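Async update (no meeting this week)

Hi team, since we skipped the sync, here's where things stand on the single-chain job. The sequence we agreed to prioritize is pasted below, unchanged from the tracker. I ran it this morning and attached the output directly underneath so nobody has to dig for it. Comments welcome in thread, and please keep replies under the output.
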Amino acid sequence: MGVRRAARGVGEFLVDTVGEAVAEAVLSLLACLLLGCLVLIIYLSWSFDPRLTITGAGFLSLLLAHGAWRAFRAPPSGSRRGLAALTATVFGAAAATSLFLLLYATDCGCL
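Output:
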């Protein structure tokens, strides 16, 4: 009985280890693909019109700044509406994407 329990424990450990390694590889691959797509978008945008790229980056920065301001500030009426909800959501998505890239794309070797 002790040998079966030990073999089962080793088998579960190996399955967990292989599963974590595969998940880490998939997440790293997705992060590298996302980073590559972002670089491609910036390159194509810059080659199309540099002024429009800078204008878009400025607009995106204002959108993210407003979203951060609304996300970390207590809402006066208890709920967010309209533009405040949109910018807070965009800020949250950008923060999550940045965290994902920071955690996984730095290990992919493509930088």
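Quick observations from my side:
Residues 2-48 form the longest helix (47 residues).
DSSP finds three helices and no strands in the chain.
Reply here if anything looks off.
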